[in-house]
Amino acid sequence: MSTEPDGQRDVPKIGQPPENRRETLLKLLWIGMWLAFLGSPVVDLAQGDYGTTGTILGSLGLVAFVGCYVVLVMRRMGRPLGRLAVHASLALLPVLAVVLSLTLGADWLVLFVYISVACGAVLPLRWTRLAILATTAVMVGVGLLLDTEPQYWLLVPALLAGFSMIGVRELVRTTRELQEARAQVALLAANEERLRLARDLHDLLGHSLSLITLKSELAGRMLPDHPGKAADQVADIEKVSRQALVDVREAVSGYRRARLGTELAGAQAALTAAGITADVPAEAPELPETQESALAWTLREAVTNVVRHSGARRCVVDVTRRETLEGPRVELTVEDDGSGPSGTPPGNGLTGLAERLTAAGGTLETGAAGSGGFRLVARVPAASVGSAA
Question: What digits encode the pLDDT tens for the residues 162-215?
Fold first, then answer.
């Protein structure tokens, strides 16, 4: 099952092989757009100057050339040659280009441009530049052998197309490495959280459970002869258990508290999944725990309202630090282009947000946006309430 957003499923994957029939058709269509430059050979065949036999042979050669080119470009780029079909196609392309150009004329020199692209897409990088230069040199040589003026205007397309494909391959490789690095960072962060949770729980519960075990054994030995002392031990066990429960709750609440950075990423995913164009910052400013939690809950509620009720097509989220007369403030703005305010009193969600922000020393403003949609602005102090600026 694909995990890409709906808006990205129709984009051909550059540098990657198609995974299903739909992607195959999309990639063929994308490649077919660039085959339009083969118009000169097609027009040359259509003029009928070569007779029936020559036209048929020329058409078959052009079809074979296009087939080999498509096979090469459709494969996964950025890897050395490995398949027999790729070897055969890459070897056949220059042969067909030379034979067709020498036989049918200068209009067919454009085939060498496609050979440069194929070399840039398939060959190992250490051979690619040399192959592109060699292809261009062969094109010039074939043009000189012809009785017509050499097609020097094809020098720039041949060189530019080949080296541009090298750039595309490097971009694809860099993008893959970046995606792998991000996935690795996310995995390490998740592992670190699990280790921290395990370490905290061990530190919290290790001593308490050991003490409970010791007092339980002691109470068991005292019970027959000293029931009063055994009752004291049981009371101590209850106190230790209650304190351990409080410690665990505090630890878990620290893991469960809302974080603004996490909510920004969740807002991007929720809006994109709902088909709404999202403009969400990637990073959040540092804030005290209370203020950060208040803004995080505000963002979650605002995005939920946009997805469920607004009917918007675009939503912009902004987090800005401002200097005011009351001191530094962090301002969260959520604005959409949907149906706008309904005119009814605020619901429980917005009322609860206002109370939460007030407790954190902040404010909440809601109303119509300039685009006709809905605009929510939440402000909190950039420092803890009551601390010195």
Answer: 888 888 888 878 888 888 888 888 888 778 777 777 777 766 677 677 778 877
Q: Which of 336, 305, 276, 280 is nearest to 7 (CA)?
A: 276
Beta strand spans in the chain (E): 277-279, 314-324, 327-336, 363-368, 374-381
Taken in order 169, 171, 174, 175, the sign of the CA dihedral is negative
Which residues are within 8 A (CB) of 110 and not within 5 positions of it... i.e. 6 or more apart?
37, 38, 40, 41, 151, 154
Half-sphere exposure of 289 (CA within 13 A, CB side): 5
What one-character DSSP code corresponds to residue 345? P
CA nearest 35: which of 93, 121, 117?
A: 117
Give residue 207's pLDDT: 67
- Residues in a beta bridge with 363: 379
Q: Nearest CA to 67 among 90, 37, 100, 84? A: 90
Are the C-beta atoms of 154 and 195 separated by less than 8 Å? no
Question: Residue 295: exposed, middle, or buried by beta-carbon count in 10 A (0-12, 13-18, 19+)?
Answer: buried
Q: Which residue has the tokens 């164009």?
A: 277
Kindly state the DSSP code that residue 20 receives in the 8-state scheme.
S
Q: What is the chain's percent helix, strand, coil content, to nearest 5?
A: 65, 10, 25
Is residue 378 within 8 Å of 358, Cβ to Cβ? no
User: Residue type at 329?
Assistant: R
**Model pLDDT for residues 34-61, shown as the tens digit of each residue:** 777 777 788 888 887 777 888 888 889 8
Do the Cβ atoms of 250 and 205 come closer than 8 Å?
Answer: no
For the ranges 39-48, 361-370, 378-387, the lowest mean pLDDT is seen at: 378-387
First to last CA, the chain: 51
The tens digit of pLDDT for each residue in 72-98 reads 776 644 344 456 767 777 888 888 888
pTM of the predicted model, to two decimals?
0.46
Q: Is 155 exposed, middle or buried (0-12, 13-18, 19+ CB in 10 A)?
A: middle
